[in-house]
Amino acid sequence: MDTDERRREILEIARRDGSVEVTELATKLSVAKETVRRDLHALEEHGLVRRTHGGAYPVESAGYETTLAVRTTRLVPQKSRIATAAVDLIGDAETVFIDEGFTPQLVAEALPRDRPLTVVTASLAVANGLADADKIAVLLLGGRVRGGTLATVDHWATRMLADFVIDLAFVGANGISREYGLTTPDPAVSEVKAQAMRSSRRKVFAGIHTKFGAVSFCRFADVGDFEAIVTDVGLPSAEAQRYSLLGPQVIRV
Q: pLDDT tens, 33-73?
């Protein structure tokens, strides 16, 4: 196996499993740990992975997107804390948009059940999770269902959203950067997110620290469009400060 083949194999494993460890890769590929570290460095320079202590995880891009099933297995405690902190910002909102994705799904689970709420969502998982809540009315956007994320897209969804005035939107993204804003790989998903931004008075981004600095294909919002960004302490405080200078309150939990 030459260098290019080995790096393709590493990337394939990372995308399949959600992350890779240097020690395990060295054993599996019968190479030195330092060779694996060089491979991960090269993949990171090409924007394909983000390195961590002892390993790496794949970066979502225009040509690659993790499925909802994979997202439910990664950094779950951090995502749960983010969801709880995001819901603390709900205030007196009566209508709420909840985006597709696992962290927004956790936001839905954390919503108060003792007050009337109307939830608008493109996520089948969110709608299913809230369907039995007595005081929550759920409006599921119509459209084509994307198999990997179990969410609706296309003009049916955006037309429905365009008719609403929503108090608060909890929005996710595949990447958030100070230069390029919030991005996602699929143009159809981007259209739904962009319309949710237009239809909502207040916007909160809820996402894990690994989203920061990542850039995908379709831009749907600027950092300054949000009143708050909720993430975990994996985002360095200095970087959080840089994002806050663009407008939003940055909350690390």
A: 999 999 999 998 888 888 888 998 887 654 556 665 666 65
Higher pLDDT, 18 or 195: 195
CA-based end-to-end distance of the chain: 43
- In 30-173, which ranges are continuous DSSP H helix? 33-45, 68-71, 76-87, 102-110, 124-130, 155-162
The answer to whether 120 and 165 have CB atoms below 8 angstroms apart is no
Instruction: Encode 66-99: b = buried (16+ Cβ within 10 Å), e = exposed.
Output: bebebbeebbeebbbbbbebbbebbeebebbbbb
The amino acid that residue 106 corresponds to is L
DSSP H or E segment with residue 11: helix 3-17
Kindly tell me if the per-residue pLDDT of 18 is higher than 80: no
* 146/93 Cα distance (integer angstroms): 29
Q: How far, in Å, are 54, 217, 234 from residue 144 at the CA level? A: 40, 20, 35
> Would you state the pLDDT for residue 61?
57
Give residue 72's pLDDT: 62
Name 70's Cβ contacts closer than 8 Å, sequence gap at least 6. Answer: 18
Amino acid at 47: G
Higher pLDDT: 96 or 147? It is 96
